[in-house]
Amino acid sequence: MPQIAANGVNLYYELHGPERADVLVLSNGILMSTGSWAYQLPTFSRFLRVLLYDCRGMWQSGHPAGPYSMEQHADDLAALLDGLGIDQAHIAGISYGGEVSLAFALRHPQRTRSLVVSSAVATVDAAMRARTDPWEQAARRGDPDELFRVTAPLNFSPAWAAANQPLLESARARYASLDMAAFCELMGAFCRLDLQSELGRITAPALVTVGGADVLKPLPYAQAIADGIPGAELAVIPGAGHAVSWEKPGVFNSLVLGFVLKHALKAVFSDQ
Q1: Closest Cα to residue 13, out of 47, 59, 44?
Q2: Are 144 and 175 spatial neighbours (Cβ–Cβ below 8 Å)?
Q3: CB 47 within 8 A of CB 36
Q4: Interacting residues of 125 by C-beta distance below 8 A, sequence separation 6+
Q5: If you average pLDDT over residues 155-177, what whole number do you get?
Q6: Listing from the earlier edge strand, what are the strands of the sheet with 49-53?
Q7: Per-residue CA distances from 222 to 54, 92, 97, 113 (Å)
Q8: 3 φ, ψ (degrees, to nearest 5)
Q9: Average pLDDT over the chain, rounded to whole?
Q10: Rounded to 10 degrees, what is the CA torsion of 112, 113, 118, 121?
Q11: Nearest CA among 188, 231, 208, 224 for reference residue 98
Q12: Could you write out the three-class secondary structure of 61-127?
């Protein structure tokens, strides 16, 4: 199990794809793991060096005592890149990972070649807190079944959930192995998120994506991020719920890969 000591925590990571290609970092959603990128990895790793990892508090990485913060996650990722000898990368993430990516682009602009933020928010308002408070309460009670019941309807569109019951049941089974204390620390970092007013400082080219049927972090949040980042592009994926990378992997992959490769090529030609 490859791990690197980064910023005081052991981080689990995987590297896939051509060694000389541009690096694409994929940061997980709060309930995701590196295995959750199964629909993306075969496509992305044909063209890019893909770095998957678990944040502190997630799955195979260390679970130190909190509190955690998005800024800390960003510095963890920078230290992981240092440990792997990677100077710059295309930084991408979904939901919690999208918020980590925003923090990284703000704290480490010189290392961010491009930025992809999916299904995310820049600031947690009262409405968002109300939607996610039952998640933290279920975790504090140590009840994985309750946590699944309060998260699944917000993470997946009804049509996708009805057509993919086996996948949902496998996800439900994984909840039993969650470190609930660490999950609460991750939730705390999310609830303290407040980056909207800083987005104008992001200099990397940015793509913001959101599912048209996302009820957890719907379009207005994505629109606010795109409006806040100079020159950002916004793509709405019709019919997709919050977990766009699972529900519409073909569309999601095309958007992300096209955007990243476009800016990778721009960098090549600008250096000539």
Answers
A1: 59
A2: yes
A3: no
A4: none
A5: 94
A6: 3-6, 9-16, 49-53, 23-27, 89-94, 112-118, 206-211, 233-237
A7: 24, 14, 14, 21
A8: -140, 150
A9: 96
A10: 40
A11: 208
A12: CCCCCCCCCHHHHHHHHHHHHHHHCCCCEEEEEECHHHHHHHHHHHHCHHHEEEEEEECCCCECCHH
pLDDT of 259 strictly over 80: yes
Contact 213, 250 (CB under 8 A): no
pLDDT at 257 over 70: yes
Structural domains of the chain sorted by starting position, each given as residue range(s) with its CATH number in brackets = 3-123+195-270 (3.40.50.1820)
Check residue 138 and report its DSSP letter.
Answer: H
Amino acid identity at 243: A
Neighbours of 213 (CB within 10 A): 21
Q: Residue 272: its pLDDT value, please?
A: 46
Q: Which residue has the tokens 């602009």?
A: 109
Q: Which long-range contacts (CB under 8 A, 24 or more apart) does 79-87 make?
A: 79/4, 79/6, 79/7, 80/4, 80/6, 80/11, 80/13, 80/51, 80/53, 81/25, 81/51, 81/111, 82/6, 83/4, 83/5, 83/6, 84/4, 84/13, 84/15, 84/51, 86/23, 86/51, 87/111
Q: Measured over all CA atoms, what is the biggest interatomic distance in the chain, rounded to whole angstroms?
A: 58
Radius of gyration of the chain (CA): 17
Given a contact cutoff of 8 angstroms between Cβ atoms, the answer to whether 81 and 111 are in contact is yes
Which tokens is 128 given? 């968002």
Instruction: List the beta strands (DSSP E) in 102-232.
Output: 112-118, 206-211
